[in-house]
Please model this.
Amino acid sequence: MDSSTAAAMVRADGYELHALAIAYGQRQGHELACATKLADALGAASFRIVTVDLGALGGSALTDEIDVPKDRDHASIGAGIPVTYVPARNTVFLAVALAAAEACGAEALVIGVNALDYSGYPDCRPEFIEAFERVAALGTKAGVEGTPIRVLTPLIAMSKAEIAAKGHELGVPFEHTLSCYDPIEQGGAWLPCGRCDACALRAKGFAEAGLMDPALGGQA
Model:
């Protein structure tokens, strides 16, 4: 939901998209299948999947056999860092994306982090993004030569309702997205569990925006 909307927003601003998905050892492979469909639907000029096995390091319910929290209220979701946090994931993702951007001559990275309706992850905060931009400026040829690669975070100050509304406005194919941390496979398709933090935040966003979630069979 977030990455696809962020991509659509910068595309609307005139950027050419080069999409990147990372196979990081996640327990569920559905997000890579979704990313492939979304890259095509959003007209990405290129799409690649890079493997960086964070699952080998463990420490998260998204990579280990650790139970995903379910049925938490919104106050609980926003309090503390949950077991679905993957150690240093966004740091690793941005580092890989930075290498890809420098290699192909891109001027910016785009990441769908959000610091309002989120699960308390430390690597979704504005100060983290600002620090990484400094790393990009200091540690790359592009930065040293005076053309640092920026990190665009169009969703950073948006609520999930605002994200749902903006994605709907831009024609994001939300039917190809699945936010769930613990999806259920049924007849070869992946369905959201409807109970994890990600499902709760997504449902809250669509409801507050007055929209049906296309991934649940509704019409946006």
Summary: The chain is about 40% helix and 10% strand. Residues 2-216 form a domain with the Rossmann fold fold (CATH 3.40.50.620). The chain has a mean pLDDT of 93.
